[in-house]
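Our preliminary data section would be incomplete without showing what the modeling component actually yields. Below, a chain of 339 amino acids is followed by its predicted structure, encoded as tokens that our downstream tools consume directly.
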Amino acid sequence: MSRYWRPVPQVGPSRPEGAATLAGGWAWFTHVEVLERGRAPRVTGLEEVPQEWRARLTAPRAPLMGLRWDRPRLMGILNVTPDSFSDGGVHFDPAVAIAAGRAMSGEVDLFDVGGESTRPGAREIPSEEEAARVLPVIAALAAEAPPISIDTRKAEVARAALAEGATMVNDVSALSHDAAMAGTVAGAGVPLCLMHAYGPPETMQDDPRYDDVVLDIYDALAAKVAEAEAAGIARARIFVDPGIGFGKTLSHNVALLARVSLFHGLGCPVLVGASRKRFIGTISGAPGGPARAPGSVAVALSCAAQGVQVLRVHDTSDTAQALRLWRAVATGVRDEDRP
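Predicted structure:
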């Protein structure tokens, strides 16, 4: 029976001797939770962790796009769509999206620009239409803003966006939608985010089921990382995202977030995009959009405490402020204290 070794992360100044650094970052751990299918979880010390797991859990993640992973990084969302679940198409006008990008550029470490809604039930749009939405925004921001990720499932859109100055591809289908995507990313030599989704947006919320949601998604992402490596994309350039809200119920989402540190075992930087998702509204009672900002910030801080390297968020100012305070209080380090 396969065992999975989830680090139990801690932060703060009172680090005991022998603690292992999590992914070369700001968190550390002295214990792990052993997860097995069909058995109750148990907690044990580092001495029981197999060497290959310990190596993946502790190895520093390589810098990408000029970013080091010594602190949580914010990815600001720019949805250039008329039908986003979270902002109602407020950035559909390219001029508005460009202005919003410039306004948040001092708060985020990178942008994620998308031109096709992947909300539950959304329909696919043609590549030409998707590209027409995002390319003016990317072209305008590439020379003056933080690094830009193109949020697309389509190789044609990815190629056009990279030509305009994008430096990363965020594929919510994890290479499943377009057979040409792996070769496009490998040829460009750019980072890739592989996100788990339970089928396409049209059907992903139609009664999603898992035997063990955390372990099933870990295995699915492990297979996708192997697929990307086989296509010529180095593991050091791959981000993994458990896909909160993409074919998951409320209980699935909560289970994933509670044990999100397991995904460090894949040896890749971890990205989480839970901002303004439906489960936040269900738990908090907040309606959609900006009213879910406090809940989104709470989830972001929980992920930061588990060593998640990239937080994909809508409410960039609120989250940036919360992270600065969390780092100062929880770790004793202020951003301005760092070299």
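The chain has two domains: 4-58, 73-337. The chain is about 35% helix and 15% strand. Preliminary results of this kind motivate Aim 1 of the renewal.
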